[in-house]
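Reagents: none. Just compute today. Trm112 family protein.
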Amino acid sequence: MRRDLIDLLACPICKGDLIIESESISKEEGDEIIEGRLYCSRCKEYYPIEDGVPILLPPEMR
Ligand SMILES: [Zn+2]
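Predicted 3D structure written out:
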């Protein structure tokens, strides 16, 4: 996913903003994040990015 796409993404639980910490990006190409994780500071929940696709499912649905 493009790094600036994060502005359009929202937490599936609280609809709050997600953030990505640079240390939680494990693989990136240019401005594309390939592997990493998004974080919701309100829910204290992480959402994985796998093969460039953010997996925005509540934890109980994975
Ligand atoms: Zn949330």
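The chain is about 0% helix and 35% strand.
Action item: order primers for follow-up constructs.
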